[in-house]
Amino acid sequence: MNAIGPIGDKPAQREKPWIFRTYAGHSDAAESNKLYRTNLAKGQTGLSVAFDLPTQTGYDPDHVLSRGEVGKVGVPVSHLGDMRALFDQIPLAQMNTSMTINATAAWLLSLYVAVADEQGAPRATLQGTTQNDLVKEYLSRGTYVFPPRPSMQLTTDIVVFTARELPKWNPTNVCSYHLQEAGASPVQELSYALATAIALLDSIQAQPEVSEAEFPGIVGRISFFVNAGMRFITELCKMRAFVDLWDDITLKRYGVQEEAMRRFRYGVQVNSLGLTEPQAENNVYRILIEMLAVTLSKKARARAVQLPAWNEALGLPRPFDQQWSLRMQQVLAYETDLLEFGDIFDGSAAIDAKVEELKAAALDELAKIDAMGGALAAVESGYMKQALVENGARRIEAIERGEQIVVGVNKFTTSEPSPLSTGEGNVVTVPDSVELEAIGRLKAWRSARDAKAAQAALAELSAAAREVRNVMPASIACAKAGVTTGEWAQALREIFGEYRAPTGVDTGKRGDDPGLATVKAAVARATEKLGRPPRFLVGKPGLDGHSNGAEQIAVRARDAGMAVNYGGIRQTPEEIVTQAQETKADIIGLSILSGSHLPLVRDVTARLRVAGMTIPVVVGGIIPPDDENALRNMGVAAVYTPKDFALDGIIADVAGLAAKTQV
What we know:
Structural class: alpha/beta
Number of strands: 15
Number of helices: 25
Helix content: 40-55%
Strand order of the largest sheet: 1-10-9-8-7
Oligomer: single chain
Shape: globular
Largest sheet: 5 strands, parallel
């Protein structure tokens, strides 16, 4: 026997592995292009583009809401020139590209098609996916712009357009990934994602230009994007349940007869919410175990996998950290015999029983959503958001009480210092100069383009939207005419309006929960000093839509007896300070997970000083130690990072700070 295995051991016929991806992009298009080409050279077989928050929410880098956000959580793409630079030397006819873009998906796909046209790539050869599930944006990630029904029409436009022009493209990713991040149970993931898919298929089927003969082929291009957490068996069964339920829905509800068109096709990124800041090296094991849940069962195997890096709870990962996650996939696919066997779980009584249990519960929940009028109605009423917030609260409480063990966080916390997360440059940081450079390039682009052609293209886009025509042809024309991301989105904002989704926070209090006794006592002491409950303003400055932390803080503070004001996502520093004045807040809590904490907190604290307000400010987010010191130097009273998982302690701190400032 040699080091590889038995000599002469002939391997069985192997299946082709799934697509290997890394979710990547930051700073600017040129830097991200270098990263993509490096990753492809390392054996990555597809691209997964991370766009920055201004791009995702339809703002140019010079907009007030873009301040501090440019290039932080992804690459800024403001116009065709940026998209050209992003895919420089990458032949789009040969590439499989996933783009995580939602409200502005039609625009980014239009830019992609325009670059492909310039490269001479036939549209029929383009392969990839646009993740443009707006329902989950209202429930979890927060990068929505328009109201639910116009948003569904935009997604429908993409689906119908790609069916004719880009037949190999997956026009939508119905996404349950962020639902789990926001607190969804496996049953909620199944039912909410499938309810969203049903709403989309109903919308497509209602389009007069979609024939009955075309519809099954369109159904066959619908894909999903899912999450896998640490409950390995349940997650594996969840994926098998997805396969069965989707097959049943497409056959019985929509009459799709061809089995290939009913296949549940999905990509996956495993759970980033479960990555821990304490003992971050343990995340390597978590990522591996979660990947197994979506690869071991052939019947329910992912078509594409992208894995987070072990240190994403600390900041942006380095190229080495992303390589480590890529190698994890390659070792499983190429060194093991996984791809040589059929489904190893078929016939398992335990697996089958769990799958049937999940399916039955999901069907019950689907029936409830159907009775409300479908997914869009359940979003507009706040039903789904409230359910996610409540379930997320139960998860956090279970960790706090020690009922759910997280190694290194609430158990086995004694640790040796990790050499992996020490030293200079242990995470990537995006310099402030990136924003100024992006604004400079934007100004140069606007001055160099044919302004009349851009205005004419925007006028045609507005006409198409107003007349409920498919916006894709007009959007591609805008891309080629030099229109910017902010201009495209503003044209549609003027027609569709903007939307503020329900926060899920304004639900009934849980009454005399004995688990809240300690924190209620802390709030009661503050109430006695103030002569009234402490007034706590929870703010989400900037474009960061990951609102789960802010929502859980708001809910716990409210349940503990504080007077909480939470206005939801996407607030300017000016709006937060004005709100603090109007509500006579005793303390302000700012939640920022996009890496833009320094400029945004600096702006808020400066405006408070100008207004003559001495309100203490606390900040929560993914904040490196050096930045924590900088925030304290700005006058921030307390800083909380993912290691501070005990919400009761945070609320007690907040109540104490609120009371002290009034004495």
